[in-house]
Amino acid sequence: MGLRIFAHAITLVFSHIGFALRISALLYLVPAVLYELVIATVVRNPDPLLALRIASPIFLFLAAAAALWIAVGWHRYILLDEAPGVIAPPFRGDRVLAYFGNSLLVGLIAFGIALVVFLPVGFIAAIIGRAGGTISYLVLLLPLASYFVIAVLVYRVSLILPASAIGKPIKLSEAWAATRGSNGTFFALAIVSVLCAAGLTFPVLWITPNLGALAGFVWQTATSWIELMVGVSIITTLYGYYVEKRALP
User: Do 73 and 84 form a contact (C-beta atoms < 8 A)?
Assistant: First the structure.
């Protein structure tokens, strides 16, 4: 089921590519291009570190605001069939603010889970590491396993995000109840998501030194856009399947 959800999320993006670009292209590209232009200017600044400290928070805010706007627009297009404008989706400030608030809540939950999971994992890893030998390699696997535990739990509560985007908010307890019994699905979904993200990211290590910084920037921008849109589509699919009871193809 996890693989089906992931495949459906990809299908959503590329079978609606025209609408996906209308919703996200301008909003995503403007902060990315501006930031690269600023970086190019900063390196020629007499005090580049100071300039970077000033510029980075500004563009981080712009990128975050754009991502929220895109996510809300995409959720509403897929779940409500709300068509975007020619170059951007309608800006719905109340939905974007609600989405931002719920994103913070999910982030805090993820942070809390990480503390609960990683503290004992760190303790166990220290004990295993002292043992030496082949068993010490388990130390490398423990953080990865912990990540997947966190991902499963976060997926379960992430249904509150598209719910807030379409103006039909649900409680954390409702999201948790709706996804009961699906931990295996979310575990598989987390694995395939990580593998695909790694497959998209690693080529830049060859592209940038061999084809140049511009080619590396184009690759990173394109793959980051894919990761954003597929990530939002995964959550959209989860909401449609578990809350609205939509069938998967």
Answer: yes
